[in-house]
Amino acid sequence: MMPNETTLSRRGLFMKLGILFNGLVAAVLAVPIGRFLLSSITRGRANGFLSWVPLGNVNQFPEGETRLATFRNPLVMPTDGKTVDTACWVRRIAGDQFQVFAVNCAHLGCPVRWFPQSGLFLCPCHGGAYYRDGSRASGPPERGLFEYPYKVENGLITIQAGEMPTPGANAALMRKGQRCA
Amino acid sequence: MRLISEGSFSRIGAWFDRRLQLAAPIREASEHRVPRSTASWWYVFGSAALIVFCLQLVTGILLALTYVPSAGEAWSSLQALNHEISLGWFIRALHGWGSNFMVAIVLIHMMQVFLFGAYKFPRELTWIIGVFLLLMTLGMAFSGQVLRFDQDAYWGLGIGASIASRVPFAGPAIVKLMLGGPIIAGATLSRFFALHVFVIPGMLIGFVGLHVLMVFKLGINEWPMPGRIVKRATYLNEYHELTKKDGAPFVPYAIWKDMFFAAFILLAVAACAVWFGPFGPTGKPDPTIIQTVPKPDYFFLWLYALLSLLPPSLETPALLIGPVLVILGLLLLPFLSGEGEKSWKRRPIAVLTVLLLAITLGTFTHLAEYTPWSPQMNAWSAAPMPARFLRGTTALERQGALVFQSKQCRNCHSLADSGGQRGPALDSVAVRLTQDQLIRQVIQGGGNMPAYGKNLSPAEATALVAFLETLHPAGQAPARDAARDFALRQ
């Protein structure tokens, strides 16, 4: 008998079922694989990467001066080595009044340096400059330095940290904040 | 000796070929006729890229015998390669210089293919795969720089993350996907290791195979003659006629030049490796060490310069839209001009485009090498004040020279060609600005200069401006506000 186009042979059906079967297995496997690949994003959404980390006693930071402080990232994996140690600039204005800046330039993230003589933060990469209060002075950055939220309790200064500040991420945070307000 | 005669060799060969059945296709590929004109030194860059790729595969595997892809240990394992393991430095240097050569050769190959019109019908897909090969080569270059896990790699990742974060809406998610978490850490290095060692090389091998296969199937592009126009309807017959009338077998007629150039390039890589040694690693990837000047490897220096020179408002659109346009343009090129003139002698716009791109990239690369836009962080304390600026000055003016150094003006402004180049040189600033304009510029800033009003006492500002007013050539009077002079005389 000649097979015509409308009928489906037994082997043809099995081949199609075989494709379907493989497709189903692929779809089932795609779920855990996809979740594994995206875990670095979804984990942050579930628990958040941020927590409060101590910088030290407030007396380490003289009034009217800006000093470099370091802290350990709240999330640490065994292979991280020194990369979880982070630096930040702490400016004690007066008393319990502080500003804590990320070292990352708001342009492309290079580490800015503080020059007390001229009262400027300068970036070595593309020459971004910021005033002592972190606001933009000149150069390619579009905004001032990133600031960590801080609180002073029992003479101890702690900051909310855990995520590398980037221009886009911080803009997204600001959008969220505006929606809440 | 009689035992192993030619006859037994051919019998062993025949035994294998009955099972592998590769002799016929290999013979066909090597004996296929190519236009005599293509046996040229201009046609050697593709095979040179292939040979350097092979070198990278071999040296990469050798490095992997020692390298530890862990943020805590990668740097020390590179130090061990450099200093403890016999000839480890040489294998690192070969791999590093191999990557520089590979990027350069791939770019030259692409330029030659473009100028010779080789992307036109029927070789459009060969060009498109070539564009992907270029992107993968650049991907290997960047990920390789990350694996050299030092300060440049760490802050380079930060720059990459800062650029990626600017993608609308998805930016923060892309950053976390790229870094493998919220910060640059162990997970970041591990995933760049997977990219550099498994994902991109795997794709490269597959795409290189297709690329070379198509060169054999479609035939190498003939030497372009002005006036010989490519038409879809007739080209294949014309090419066939050409190889019949004026062709020669690829082996050995054309391949000997490829072989000579390949060996020369390998020798050049080895010579650079011996002479200049391996790249880095620079300082430890410790984010608490901020006394660092991160810089990318040479193939991304042009981008580093561009990022400094773009106006801030243009930067994000240029970063996000620019690459898309460039890649789209490259991919669409064979469809936009798939027919017509091949010879560069009749394609002035093509030649000018290549020249413009080469000069632009070269200029930006050169600029990035000495970063005139970055303040010289130690000029204020290190660069001496030339005596001629102080000779015959008053106490107030000398006080101003002191303010000029101690307030770090020198970091951005040079005097007698020493100091930063971020701002204009001030050797003759008094000719350009009047006293009032100098005061205003110092106090309020403007242009690209920060305002120093809050950081200078009135006495310091007065002294500084008094010093700046002395900065004019001997025979040239300082700028004066004529109206002010008149008002004071009244």
For the structure shown, list the relevant keywords.
heterodimer, A: 181 residues, alpha+beta, Rieske Iron-sulfur Protein, 2 domains, 4-stranded antiparallel β-sheet, 3 helices, 11 strands, elongated, disordered C terminus, B: 490 residues, mainly alpha, Cytochrome Bc1 Complex, Chain C, Cytochrome Bc1 Complex, Chain D, domain 2, two-stranded antiparallel ribbon, 21 helices, 2% strand
Main sheet makeup of chain B: 2 strands, antiparallel
Number of domains of chain B: 2
Largest interface comes to: A-B, 59 and 71 residues
Count of discrete domains of chain A: 2
Pick out the low-confidence regions of chain B.
Answer: none
CATH class of the largest domain in chain B: Mainly Alpha
The helix tally of chain B amounts to 21
As laid out across the biggest beta sheet of chain B, the strand order is 1-3
CATH fold type of the largest domain in chain B: Cytochrome Bc1 Complex, Chain C
CATH architecture of the largest domain in chain B: Up-down Bundle
The proportion of residues in beta strands of chain B is under 5%
Order of helices and strands of chain B: HHEHHHHHHHEHEHHHHEHHHHHHH
Poorly predicted sequence stretches spanning 5 or more consecutive residues of chain A: 172-181
Which structural category do the helix and sheet elements of chain A fall into?
Answer: alpha+beta
Tell me, rounded to a whole number, the average pLDDT of chain B. Answer: 92
- Beta-strand residue percentage of chain A: 25-35%
Gist of the model:
The complex is a heterodimer of chains A (181) and B (490). Chain A is 28% helix and 30% strand.
How do the strands and helices of this protein lay out in sequence?
The complex is a heterodimer of chains A (181) and B (490).
Chain A: H1 10-37, H2 39-47, E1 51-57, E2 66-72, E3 85-94, E4 97-102, E5 113-115, E6 120-122, E7 129-131, E8 136-138, E9 147-148, E10 150-153, E11 156-161, H3 167-180
Chain B: H1 6-20, H2 23-31, E1 33-35, H3 45-64, H4 74-83, H5 88-115, H6 124-147, H7 151-164, H8 171-179, H9 186-218, E2 229-230, H10 235-246, E3 247-249, H11 250-253, H12 255-276, H13 301-309, H14 312-336, E4 340-341, H15 348-370, H16 379-382, H17 395-406, H18 429-432, H19 435-444, H20 458-468, H21 482-489
Antiparallel strand pairs in B: 1-3, 2-4
